[in-house]
Amino acid sequence: MSNAKVLPLLESEADAVAPCCPPLTERPFTAGEAETAARMFKALGDPVRLRLFSAVASHEAGEACVCDISDVGVSQPTVSHHLKKLKEAGLLTSERRGTWVYYRVEPSVLAAMGKLLAIAPAAA
Hints:
By secondary structure, the protein is mostly helical. The chain has 5 helices and 3 strands.
Protein backbone atom coordinates (compact mmCIF):
# COMPACT_ATOMS: atom_id res chain seq x y z
CA MET A 1 0.00 0.00 0.00
CA SER A 2 1.38 3.39 -0.95
CA ASN A 3 0.46 6.78 0.41
CA ALA A 4 2.29 8.57 -2.38
CA LYS A 5 0.84 11.61 -4.07
CA VAL A 6 2.64 11.95 -7.38
CA LEU A 7 2.45 15.12 -9.42
CA PRO A 8 1.92 14.79 -13.16
CA LEU A 9 5.55 14.93 -14.24
CA LEU A 10 5.01 12.47 -17.04
CA GLU A 11 2.36 11.50 -19.49
CA SER A 12 3.21 7.93 -20.47
CA GLU A 13 2.50 6.97 -24.05
CA ALA A 14 3.63 3.54 -25.26
CA ASP A 15 6.51 3.42 -22.76
CA ALA A 16 7.95 6.67 -24.11
CA VAL A 17 9.18 9.04 -21.46
CA ALA A 18 7.65 12.46 -21.91
CA PRO A 19 9.04 15.09 -19.56
CA CYS A 20 6.77 17.56 -17.83
CA CYS A 21 8.34 20.32 -19.80
CA PRO A 22 10.48 20.83 -22.89
CA PRO A 23 14.23 21.18 -22.47
CA LEU A 24 15.06 24.57 -20.96
CA THR A 25 16.82 25.62 -24.16
CA GLU A 26 13.95 24.71 -26.50
CA ARG A 27 11.44 27.47 -25.72
CA PRO A 28 10.13 29.48 -22.78
CA PHE A 29 8.02 27.52 -20.31
CA THR A 30 4.29 28.00 -19.99
CA ALA A 31 3.03 28.95 -16.52
CA GLY A 32 1.97 25.35 -15.82
CA GLU A 33 5.28 23.89 -16.96
CA ALA A 34 7.16 26.38 -14.80
CA GLU A 35 5.05 25.46 -11.75
CA THR A 36 5.73 21.75 -12.20
CA ALA A 37 9.46 22.17 -12.77
CA ALA A 38 9.76 24.64 -9.89
CA ARG A 39 8.24 22.08 -7.46
CA MET A 40 10.92 19.57 -8.46
CA PHE A 41 13.78 22.06 -8.24
CA LYS A 42 12.51 23.54 -4.97
CA ALA A 43 12.37 20.08 -3.41
CA LEU A 44 15.92 19.36 -4.54
CA GLY A 45 17.17 22.82 -3.53
CA ASP A 46 17.83 21.74 0.04
CA PRO A 47 21.14 19.88 0.59
CA VAL A 48 19.56 17.33 2.95
CA ARG A 49 16.78 16.57 0.46
CA LEU A 50 19.28 16.27 -2.37
CA ARG A 51 21.35 13.81 -0.29
CA LEU A 52 18.24 11.77 0.56
CA PHE A 53 17.09 11.74 -3.07
CA SER A 54 20.57 10.64 -4.18
CA ALA A 55 20.69 7.95 -1.49
CA VAL A 56 17.37 6.50 -2.65
CA ALA A 57 18.18 6.79 -6.37
CA SER A 58 21.57 5.11 -6.01
CA HIS A 59 20.53 2.44 -3.50
CA GLU A 60 20.74 -1.20 -4.49
CA ALA A 61 17.58 -2.56 -6.10
CA GLY A 62 16.29 0.96 -6.72
CA GLU A 63 14.64 1.34 -3.34
CA ALA A 64 15.82 2.15 0.15
CA CYS A 65 14.47 1.58 3.62
CA VAL A 66 14.33 4.77 5.65
CA CYS A 67 16.51 2.93 8.18
CA ASP A 68 19.30 2.77 5.56
CA ILE A 69 19.28 6.41 4.44
CA SER A 70 18.59 8.42 7.59
CA ASP A 71 22.24 9.19 8.40
CA VAL A 72 22.40 12.64 6.80
CA GLY A 73 23.32 14.70 9.84
CA VAL A 74 19.82 15.65 10.98
CA SER A 75 17.32 14.11 13.41
CA GLN A 76 14.93 11.35 12.33
CA PRO A 77 11.87 13.66 12.44
CA THR A 78 13.72 16.07 10.13
CA VAL A 79 14.56 13.21 7.75
CA SER A 80 10.85 12.30 7.69
CA HIS A 81 9.94 15.92 6.93
CA HIS A 82 12.36 16.07 4.01
CA LEU A 83 11.21 12.72 2.61
CA LYS A 84 7.62 13.99 2.79
CA LYS A 85 8.60 17.08 0.79
CA LEU A 86 10.27 14.90 -1.86
CA LYS A 87 7.11 12.77 -2.08
CA GLU A 88 4.89 15.86 -2.38
CA ALA A 89 7.04 17.06 -5.29
CA GLY A 90 6.47 13.73 -7.06
CA LEU A 91 10.12 12.72 -6.84
CA LEU A 92 9.70 9.72 -4.51
CA THR A 93 7.11 7.04 -3.88
CA SER A 94 6.90 4.99 -0.71
CA GLU A 95 5.54 1.76 0.66
CA ARG A 96 5.17 0.72 4.30
CA ARG A 97 6.36 -2.79 5.12
CA GLY A 98 5.80 -3.60 8.74
CA THR A 99 7.38 -0.84 10.80
CA TRP A 100 9.64 0.46 8.00
CA VAL A 101 8.95 2.65 4.99
CA TYR A 102 10.72 1.95 1.71
CA TYR A 103 11.28 4.76 -0.81
CA ARG A 104 11.73 4.57 -4.58
CA VAL A 105 12.61 6.96 -7.36
CA GLU A 106 10.66 5.92 -10.40
CA PRO A 107 12.97 5.57 -13.43
CA SER A 108 10.56 7.69 -15.46
CA VAL A 109 11.07 10.59 -13.02
CA LEU A 110 14.85 10.47 -13.49
CA ALA A 111 14.42 10.26 -17.27
CA ALA A 112 12.03 13.23 -17.28
CA MET A 113 14.42 15.31 -15.19
CA GLY A 114 17.26 14.42 -17.55
CA LYS A 115 15.24 15.49 -20.58
CA LEU A 116 14.26 18.73 -18.89
CA LEU A 117 17.91 19.65 -18.45
CA ALA A 118 19.02 18.37 -21.87
CA ILE A 119 20.10 20.71 -24.62
CA ALA A 120 17.51 20.86 -27.37
CA PRO A 121 18.73 19.74 -30.79
CA ALA A 122 19.64 22.61 -33.12
CA ALA A 123 17.01 23.53 -35.64
CA ALA A 124 17.85 22.29 -39.13
